[in-house]
Amino acid sequence: MKAAVATSYGPPEVVQIRDVRKPKPRRNDVLIRVRAAALTTSDTRIRGLQYPPRLQLLLRAFIGLRAPRRIMGLVLSGEVEGVGSDVTTFKPGDEVFGFDNRFKFGAHAQYACWPAKDLLTRKPAGLTHEEAAAIPYGGLMATFFLRRAGVKGGQRVAVFGASGANGTSMVQLAKHLGATVTGICSGRNSELVRSLGAAACVDYTVEDFTESSASYDAVLDAVGGLKNPPPREKVAKVLAPGGVYVSVDETMPRFTQADLVELAGLAAEGSLKPVIDRTYPLERIAEAHAYVDQGHKRGNVIVTVA
């Protein structure tokens, strides 16, 4: 089968399409014919070892000393081709999508073998595989950090980095919870963020939202250290009494099957819309890596697999 293989850690050019052995499902596994996969910032950061030195050592020990030992890719949508002897939750022909919560990776290939008990569920019938692949990464991140911030109806919420994969999901899910949302993004993305439910937008290239007279019950940093979010002491000036500031960098998120199933339901009913910036065929995945590295994608970048 064809797969995207990183020949070393480094720039996008290290990612090459190679012929590799098609995986075989073990007794608890599902063999998936991949139709679309997300290329996330986590994928590109791992490829480029874009982490502090201590974390680089841990990643090398876990993923590979000189190059990733595994085919990369954490998010996919596709069709079940085969199941292991102990799998009862899926059958061949089922359309599924999900997130690799056990870091087995493998989504950037024609076939992937994942445990049936991984974060995997049936694809909403009304979504294409490309649209389905745009849901899990940002949706699960948003669900975890909104819950961590205790966001609920009637609150005023600001989302810094509102136009990325995490941010577009945070805006929509906070609005779904009944919050009034302000998106912090560049001016060129304001229309998109408003269309997703933000009541207002602040162009961070022109205005520092921490210097405004507004106050928020929660400020969510959807991008982390790579995009230089405002420091906590500045955000504190716009927090209402009892308000919280939560960043995606502050802890390792934990995702659940129930969260993925809920996201599938919200996407099916139209309450959570997939946002896709660009789509690349698997053969051009190195170009996709280069684009994500620029740090300006709107929503998700999707890789299609023929």
Mind describing the biggest β-sheet? 7 strands, mixed
CATH architecture of the largest domain, by name, is: Alpha-Beta Complex
So, the CATH homologous superfamily of the largest domain?
Medium-chain alcohol dehydrogenases, catalytic domain
Helix content: 25-40%
Question: Structural class, please?
Answer: alpha/beta
Shape: globular
Radius of gyration: 19 Å
Tell how many strands the DSSP assignment holds. Answer: 14
What is the third-level CATH name, the topology of the largest domain?
Answer: Quinone Oxidoreductase, Chain A, domain 1
Unreliable runs:
none
Helix-strand sequence: EEEHHEEEEHHEHEHEEHEHEHE
Beta-strand percentage?
25-35%
- The termini sit apart by 11 Å
**Helical run tally:** 9
State mean pLDDT (0 to 100 scale).
Answer: 95
As for the number of domains, it is: 2
Which CATH top level class of the largest domain fits?
Alpha Beta
Chart the SSEs and their pairings.
Elements (H helix, E strand, L loop, with lengths): L1 E5 L8 E5 L9 E11 L1 H8 L4 H11 L11 E9 L11 E5 L11 E5 L3 E4 L6 H5 L2 H14 L6 E5 L4 H13 L2 E6 L4 H6 L4 E4 L12 E6 L10 H4 L3 E9 L9 H13 L6 E6 L3 H9 L6 E5 L2
Parallel strand pairs: 8-9, 8-11, 9-10, 11-12, 13-14
Antiparallel strand pairs: 1-2, 3-4, 3-6, 3-14, 4-5, 5-7
Helix pairs in contact: 4-5
